[in-house]
UniProtKB/TrEMBL annotation:
Claim: Nucleotidyltransferase is one of the keywords in the record: no
Membrane topology value: Multi-pass membrane protein
Membrane spanning residue stretches: 14-37, 43-65, 85-102, 108-128
GO CC field: plasma membrane
Annotated protein name in UniProt: F0F1 ATP synthase subunit I
InterPro entries the UniProt entry points to: ATP_synth_I
Origin species: Halopseudomonas laoshanensis
Subcellular localization(s) per the UniProt record: Cell membrane
KW Endoplasmic reticulum (keyword) present: no
Source organism phylogeny: Bacteria, Pseudomonadati, Pseudomonadota, Gammaproteobacteria, Pseudomonadales
Length: 134
């Protein structure tokens, strides 16, 4: 008998969604700032860096929140580990795609966008807590 309970909550209602939404906004804002204050190459490079961080985080959130309830505890733990492994592999693959497939590219801008989005993720618990209060 399968004790896993699928989580039927829509993706936009998951606790991680406010963090992902803010990460998307930060990626766009970083790209716009780089575009206007540097050049267009820096702008799209920053956006690509932000997406390299955002897409794997969205994948991880999808995997972790696939199941819910106490009866699904083992499945949730399994999804956490496989989601984290997938996130690392996806991040590496996206970086390779960006480095190999996009020319011209500004490496500093890629890392700036990537780190800006990661910083939002690092403060994710504070963001989720704030959204749950409202």
């Amino acid at each position: 008998m399968d004790a896993r309970t699928p989580n039927r909550t829509p993706f936009h209602r998951l606790p991680a969604f406010p963090v992902l939404l803010l990460q998307a906004c930060v990626a766009l804002l970083a790209a716009l700032i780089l575009w206007f204050f540097q050049n267009p190459v820096a702008g799209y490079s920053g956006l690509l860096g932000g997406l390299v961080a955002l897409v794997p985080n969205a994948y991880f959130a999808y995997r972790v929140y696939r199941y819910s309830g106490a009866r699904s505890a083992q499945a949730i733990v399994r999804e956490f580990y496989s989601g984290e492994a997938g996130k690392i592999i996806l991040t590496a693959a996206l970086f390779v795609l960006v480095w190999v497939g996009v020319k011209p590219l500004e490496a500093t801008a890629v890392f700036a966008g990537y780190l800006a989005v990661l910083a939002v993720g690092a403060s994710g618990l504070l963001i989720v807590k704030r959204f749950q209060k409202h």
